[in-house]
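[agent] plan:
  1. take the single chain provided in the ticket
  2. run structure prediction with default settings
  3. attach structure tokens to the ticket
  4. add a short note for the reviewer (M.T.)
[agent] executing step 1
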Amino acid sequence: MIKVNLNSLIVAVSLAIGMGIAYFVFQPGFSGIFMMDDEPNLSALNMGGGVTTLTHLLQFVFSNDSGSLGRPISMLSFLIDDQYWPGDPALYKKNNLYIHLLSGFIVFLLSRLLLIAFNAKNTNYISLITTLIWLVHPLHASTVLYVIQRMTLLMSLFSLCTMFFYLLGRVELSKNTRKAFVYFFVSGLFAIFALASKENGILVLAYIVVIETTLLTSFPKTKVFSFLYKLLIIGPLVILACYFIYNWDGVLKGYSNRDFSLYERLLTESRILIDYLSKIIAPRPGEGGLIHDDIEVSVNLYSPLTTIPALLLNGGLILLGFWARKRHCMLAFGILWFYVGHMLESSFVALELYFEHRNYLPMVGPIIAITYYIVVLFERVALKGRLFICSLGVMFFLACCLITFQSSTIWGEPSVLFRVWAKEHPNSPRAQRIYGQLLGVEGEYEQAISQLIKTNRSFPADVGVLIDALNISCFHGLDQPFPLSFLKGKIAVARYNDGLSYYIDRMFNVVTESRCEYITAEVLIEIIDQLIPLPRMSGETRAMILLVKAKLYIEKKDLNQAMLTLDKAYSYYPKPVLPLLQCKLLLSAGLIEEAYPFFKKAQENTESYILKNIALKSEIEELKVKFNLLGVGTE
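[agent] step 2 finished; step 3 output follows
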């Protein structure tokens, strides 16, 4: 009894120290900044001057368009950090790290319970080693320190809780059925939270299937449990598969905004999955972060040559996983867990090709399995072999800590981070564009303009960098860097790249503030007209750019053109805010009868998506009262 307590104490203290080390290696990144998708998702905090009322809270929580379900749990969590935008990035990043540490604790509990269910020895130590490695793994730097990946962190936390309580229920099922179903109920609640944090939380059901078909095959099942398992675990996965089959045209439509086809994506992802596995097993410094738009796309089986070997290796591992389910359950568990975790984001869905955060939860299974087999080997070898294994384990953990600390330190210094990205990714338009913007922020305006023009020279499809070069030159009173005819010629051969609407917004400010003579309202309108037909641009982005054009016409007091432009924007992105703006414009011009149809359109759209448009409801009600007083729209 004393020995058990002593071992438990050692494990508990080691886990606490490990969490402290994890905090230490990530905390240098707190001094970093918001970047990329942070602003599009979080700038809604500014709505109404900050989230200070229940109406604005509901609007912020339920209006996000990142996923089909809006990710309300994740959005709600950001209000813990701040109620205004922009706030202090350190608060967001620190809370991300707290969630990561809490997830690490659940990883320990879950892995321990899995190993107990598997009748493994040394469950505490295997779970401890698994957790310590997972907590400090370098692949997590861009998940913990990239603010918006709170969505991945929360989804993973709730998924881990789902599996933990599910396992508690499975352990209790043969002892106390009522208690078991209480655990299952709690597990279901956490599954809902996972799904409401990020859509691929649905994969927690697939993880459970992997657990059941590998480690729990000998566990008894009641008839009621078997029925509910098929209904609530297998059923939703079947429905998900049917949804994608039914909506296959929508899946294929997503590729209209990509530089690769479905076939090319599947081939490329086979190489990427092997790259993920190699970085999980053998982390290395550099090559991390958010810049991966320079990955070579596999256009066929032979280009690049690594495509076929990657396909064969992935196929072989998956077959090995299925074959090993009865003879080598832990091996099967580790393999199938990894591939199940990548079923959505690394398969047929038209997302960007590569992101490190996609491994946050999928790496748990492989680490448990590898640690298990290393401990088994440790028990079978002589003293020298054990010392060698311990030395390798300590070196691996220290290497992970050092690499993660180095990455976090760079993340905490944006001027260094963006230079590193530009150096490590010379073939990435995103990295080179960000570097040019960094030079502008640092006051190196002429160098910034030169870098942005150079970026366009290397990547002619990225015309946004030229627009930003004009913005910088105008804002800071520099000579026109190139003739407008040059820009128009470049737009003719361009396609959409991220950030384009941001550059147009900046140019609108240039125009309204009369920053320079060579960028006028007429010039910006002409640029917008040429940009709208660009391929790969989403309807939402086209609408946002057209909204800038409408604002230019409003500034010019050209009501007719403003209305026509807003009509076109609505055709691309039918949201109530656009007809509501048209209604207000017509009312301000005294055209009450003409304004009413736009009011009705806005009202109908708002009622169709009441949670996402709740902040507009008060405006709608005010306008309704106004129209009633004017005798318009009354029966």
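[agent] step 4 note for reviewer: The two ends are 83 Å apart (CA to CA).
[agent] ticket updated
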